[in-house]
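My main concern about presentation is that the manuscript never shows what a single data entry looks like. An entry of this sort, consisting of the sequence and the corresponding backbone structure tokens, reads as follows:
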Amino acid sequence: MRIILGSESPRRKEILSYFNIPFDQISPGFSEQSIPFHGDVKKYVCEISDGKAAALHHRFSHAIVVTADTIVFHNGKVYGKPTNAEEAFKFLRALSGTWHQVITGVTVQRGDEIYHHAEETRVLFNQLTDQEIHSYQKSLNVYDKAGGYAIQMGGGLIVKRIEGCYYNVMGMPINTLRKLLLHVGIDLWNHLQIK
């Protein structure tokens, strides 16, 4: 069975590549802005992820489609991908020294079967100076990341503590993915890469 990873994210591709499962990475061509936010964060990310899966299912109806959407949520506000340097700076300034939630909705679709789940991780940032934020923005591509930050590699310098799944903050919670793939007969335990 062909697997389509409906995402342009290099991090999601990296995470799925931890397993010995052939897949094709294809952009879903779905506008995340087409889904309005009505206050339920988990429902919101699943609706976006489902929309991405539906867009690809029309093109690849015989494949298993895997999609995801990640947002940062803080004080009742959704932080998606920043559109410019000023907005990215404002994001990190608002999140500095505080806890926030990272929520990823993951969808697996095969034919008319649709399975989704939203994973939540709590993240605490270090207190950041304006200089540190500017340095961070110069060193990392922040425009393709929810909240304008990365937890992996040097990007993790701003993170003081997390509660929950690390891979969720990267954009693809592994255990959630495993549970959803079980519905379509794929167990990631059987596809561990041999090193």
User: Anything to note?
Assistant: The mean pLDDT is 94. The first strand starts at residue 3 and ends at 6. Residues 3-191 form a domain with the Maf protein fold (CATH 3.90.950.10). The helical segments are 10-16, 41-57, 85-95, 130-139, 166-170, 174-182.
